[in-house]
Amino acid sequence: MRNAGARASLTALIFLLPFLLAFVADSPAQAQESLPADALAEGELRSFYAGRDMRLAWTERGKPTAAAIALRDALLGAGAHGLRPEDYDLAEIDHRWRDGAVEDWVSFDLLLTAAALRYVGDVTSGRVAPESVDANWSIERSPSSPALLLEQAIGSADPADALANMGPLHPGYASLRIGLARYQGIAAGGGWTRIPAGPTLHPGDRDARVALLRGRLTAEGDLPPLEAAATDDL
Question: Which among 19, 56, 130, 224 is most buried, taking Cβ atoms within 10 Å?
Answer without folding.
Answer: 56
